[in-house]
Amino acid sequence: MFAVVVSLEVKPGTMATFLPAMTENARLSLACEPGCHRFDVCTDSARPDEVFLYELYTDRAAFDAHLETAHFRAFDAKSGAWIVAKDVRTFDGVNA
Domain range spanning residue 61? Predict the structure, then answer.
């Protein structure tokens, strides 16, 4: 497995617009990408302008394919105006 964790800070007042677009991107990733196994979109009311993503892919190639999909490219193009900061970290699964 290949894990991707993303912390996003969105501009104050834009969460109501950002979150539906983000959850639609997650839904399409799970529905249309065989290499995408999990895509969680998480928030915390104590941090109203923060979103945390947890994504699992078969491997790095599946994640790279995700970045090339039409739905991701459309989301990425429109979401840039809403995002203040983004931290993306990736991890290779270690199986015993």
Answer: 2-92
